[in-house]
Amino acid sequence: MPLLPAHVMDFRLGVLAHNTAAAALFGDGFGTAGADNLARALFLPTPIRATKLDWARVARETVGNLRVNRARHTDDPRLLGLIAELRSAGADFAAGWEDHTVKERDHGIKRVLHPVVGELTVNHDALAAPGDFDQCLIAVTPADAAAERALRTLVACHAAAAAPASVRQIVA
Q1: pTM score of the predicted model
Q2: Is 130 part of any domain?
Q3: 166: which strand partners?
Q4: Beta bridge partners of 135
Q5: How far apart are alpha carbons 102 and 112 in whole angstroms?
Q6: What is the pLDDT of residues 45-61, one digit of tens each?
Q7: How far apart are CA 14 and CA 159, in angstroms?
Q8: Which tens digit of pLDDT belongs to each residue from 86-128?
Q9: Degrees (nearest 5) of the Cα angle 44, 134, 5?
Q10: Which of 7, 84, 115, 117 is the most buried (most CB within 10 A)?
Q11: How many C-beta atoms surround the C-beta of residue 167 within 10 A?
Q12: Residue 166: inside a domain, yes or no?
């Protein structure tokens, strides 16, 4: 899926792997350092947080998804540590956690604000083997023609920027 952003995520919302289209959409740091966990990237001050135009809804769904996974993995120390970290890091997550929302995030629509192409609307779908709640593939697809053009532009620009200088000179 070279033109569609995709990443593999664990039940702690940790990014285990991603393709170059995901890096083009979410930034080169996606899946590393502060952006190695989608909940951290959403609730802590990171560049990714600012790109979520429907932040309140996405945040509520993310907390609900962590609550579902907490019920499935009651003794996982890394998940418990993540929840404790986010609860102590700020009021946004703590308030959401106290709301007791339970929601599995398996699909939906997001509006993203990208510094190169502006606002785009995308669909996201979680694909997992039946009964496997430990990992899933998140595929991001354009919600409309404008988003499709924007994604193509992002992927092309990202690929050109990542190409060795000798290839960029030949293409130019």
Answers
A1: 0.85
A2: yes
A3: none
A4: 10
A5: 24
A6: 877 778 888 998 999 99
A7: 25
A8: 999 888 899 889 887 776 667 889 999 999 999 999 999 998 8
A9: 60
A10: 7
A11: 12
A12: yes
Angle between helices 55-72 and 77-89 (to 10 degrees): 150
Give a yes or no: residue 86 inside a domain.
Answer: yes
Using a pLDDT cut of 70, give the percent of the chain over it. Answer: 90
Separation of CA 142 from chain center: 15
Q: What is the CATH number of the domain that holds 85?
A: 3.30.450.180
Overall number of domains in the chain: 1
Tokens in use for 27? Answer: 């930034």
- Where do we find the tokens 């509006």? 111
Q: Give the residue numbers spanning the domain of 96.
A: 6-171
The tens digit of pLDDT for each residue in 11-56 reads 999 999 999 999 999 887 888 876 799 999 899 887 777 888 899 8
Count CB atoms within 10 A of the CB of residue 101: 16
> For the range 108-112, what are the long-range contacts, defined as Cβ-Cβ under 8 Å and sequence gap of 24 or more?
108/61, 109/143, 110/52, 110/53, 110/54, 110/58, 111/52, 111/53, 111/54, 112/25, 112/51, 112/52, 112/53
In a domain, 126, yes or no: yes
